[in-house]
Amino acid sequence: MTEGADRPLIWIGRSDYGRLLRAVDWLAARAPEVSALLSGELNRAIVRPEGDLPPMIVRMRSRVLFRRADGMPFEWGELAYPDQAPEDGRITIASPLGVALLGLREGARMPYVDADGTQRWLSVARVLPA
Fold this sequence. Notes:
By secondary structure, the protein is of the alpha/beta class. The chain has one domain: Transcription elongation factor, GreA/GreB, C-terminal domain (Chitinase A, domain 3, Roll), CATH 3.10.50.30. The protein has three helices and seven strands, in the order βααββββαββ. The longest helix is centred in the first third of the chain and has 17 residues. The protein starts with 10 loop residues before the first strand and ends with a strand.
C-alpha cells in the first residue's frame, strides 16, 4: 500500500485494531457517518503487533500535538475510545477529528471534514506514547 494523493499511510497495533472494529459496530447505530469513516480507515490501515509499529505513530491513548488547519494554533489532545470518560483534551475516536488522527506519523497531513462541514488539512507535529 502506498500513500495516496491526499491520505498518508496509517499504522494500527493489533490490540487497538480489534477494539476499534468493535467501536465501528457500536457507532453504527449512534453515529453512522463516523462509523463509516472509521471502517474505511481500518480497511486501509497497516496492522502490526504493537512492538513492530514505526515510532511516533498516533495510537489510542497517545498524546498528540496537532493543528486542525494551516494557520490555526497547535493543540494537544489524547486519542480516546468512545467508552472513555470525557475529559479536557480527550479526542474521541467517535469523531471525524479522532478518526483522522488515528495511525498518523509525526509530520503527516490528513484531510478531514470538521463539525461545520469544512474540508481541512490536519497536521501532526508531535506524538507522545501512551
